[in-house]
Amino acid sequence: QINEAEAMVFSVPNYACQRRTTLENHNAVLTDALSLLAENAELEDEDGRGVAFRRAAAVLKALPKPVTSLTQLRGLPCLGEHSLRVIQDVLETGSSSEAESTKQSERFKALKVLTGIFGVGPKTAAWWIRHGINTLHQLRASGHTLNRAQQAGLEHYDGVNRPVTKAEADAIGEIVETAVTSVLPGAQVTLTGGFRRGKLTGHDVDFLITHPEEGREEGLMPKVVSWLESQGFLLYQKTTRNSYLESKDGPARPASNMDRFERCFSIFKLAEDERRETKQPETRTDGVTRLRASEDACGRQPALSQADEEPKPWRAVRVDLVVSPISQFAFALLGWTGSKLFERELRRWAGYEKTMSLSSHALYDNKQSRYLKATSEEEIFAHLGLEYVPPSERNA
Ligand code: CTP
Ligand code: MN
Ligand code: MN
Ligand code: MN
Q1: Does the keyword Translocase feature in the UniProt annotation (predicted)?
Q2: Which of 193, 286, 340, 380 is close enough to 206 for a disulfide, judged by CB 3.0 to 4.6 Å?
Q3: Ligand 1 pocket check: which of 165, 206, 244 to mutate, most ligand atoms within 8 Å of Cβ?
Q4: Is the same domain home to 212 and 299?
Q5: What is the largest CA-CA distance in the chain?
Q6: pLDDT on residue 6
């Protein structure tokens, strides 16, 4: 036990976008408890409470050392009464009783199982629970009508809920790259989301597609999807067209935080041999990748988890594709790299501290009444008066 007087008092800036948050976390027990409570709030459709817990967890993720006493946290931002109570409980007893009882509650378990179905959000899940449906089995037996996304989500439940490895993300990247350059030579594919931040696993794989010549990217998504479909790579896809230009409320002020790029939410069919073949060229040059690829090949254990079922020669993987014109690429890249909290904090910083509106399309300066152009993420941070934070340090 460290003497309170000797323990260092931490200090972190207010906004997550002013901090460098790597994947190294010295306070995992605390942040796991707060993240669990955030997840529960989101599952209960209480986003305000969810954000409060996410902000508190993000502050602790940015600390250079484990917290040993509450006094070290004096003056830190974003730690509300409730979060401090949770932290105190963990420091005194080794775990959060609220997080533990939440985790074990039937309602939390049911909400988590049901929203694990792709296409099912907290509202639908809550409605089903009110009608006595708490499990996948009960849902299947109920005869409730499911939309196309939910049908695919239920059918591919295990795959969609199994973490995606970096090796699998790279294999999908090669498929997407082949698809994109087949239908539009010169087009470029960039891995975004958690994998761009250096995460080793993810719940999906995110890609941003563009072409160096403005306008050439128009209508690209349907062609990419057709190509992927013709090759049997898609188990499900829903493509939404670009709605940016025709919107009336101004490009930097979308009605919601959703952007309006041409996009595709999909479920890929990734073959076992695809995963190996695409790894082979890399295994010769990169020892680290080889190690990960083999770990991943041994680690999935499909036969062990479903002993009486034929192991499938493929797995389902959630993939998000977004097409951006090159003029908006830097904004799209920044907006799709995450983390979600980092993005939220960037927009909060822009609005409250700079009187600017940031979206995945543009940055608008409300004082100067003009758009600020940028061709790189570095330029956007500079416009916002922020020190540049590389993707690997945006893990807030
Ligand atoms: N995003 C978005 N609009 C959506 C969905 C996601 O702008 N409708 C952005 C998020 O803000 C985030 C990025 O896309 O910056 C990636 O989101 P997501 O895949 O949900 O999260 P990851 O950080 O990639 O984490 P995971 O590994 O769990 O996929
Ligand atoms: Mn992702
Ligand atoms: Mn995530
Ligand atoms: Mn995604």
Answers
A1: no
A2: 193
A3: 206
A4: yes
A5: 67
A6: 63
Sequence length of the chain is 396
Residue 10 placed within a domain: no
* CA nearest ligand 1 atom 9, residue: 336
pLDDT at 293: 37
Which residue's CA is the closest to the ligand 1 atom numbered 13?
336
From 135, 155, 175, give the residue that closes a domain.
Answer: 155
Res 240 pLDDT > 70: yes
Prior bond to 339 cis, omega within 30?
A: yes
Whether residue 1 is contained in a domain is answered as no
Residues 336 and 321 in one domain: no
- Known binding residues for Mg(2+) are 204, 206, 320
Ligand 1 pocket (Cβ < 6 Å) reads 193-194, 199, 202-204, 206, 258-259, 335-340, 343, 360
Beta bridge partners of 356: 365
Q: Look at residue 11 and tell me if it is in a domain.
A: no
Q: Residue 31: which of 374, 359, 339 has the closest Cα?
A: 339
DSSP H or E run through 352: helix 340-354
Residues 6+ apart with CB under 8 A from 158: 305, 306, 316
308 within a domain of the structure (yes/no): yes
Look at the chain and report how many structural domains it folds into. 4
Q: pLDDT class for 207, splitting at 50, 70, 90?
A: very high
CATH number of the CATH domain containing 131: 1.10.150.20
Q: Please compute the mean of the pLDDT values over residues 242-246 and round it to a whole number.
A: 64
Residue of 204, 259, 286, 308 marked active site: 204
Residue 235 is which amino acid?
L
Q: Average pLDDT of 365-378?
A: 98
- The ligand that comes nearest to the alpha carbon of residue 35 is 3
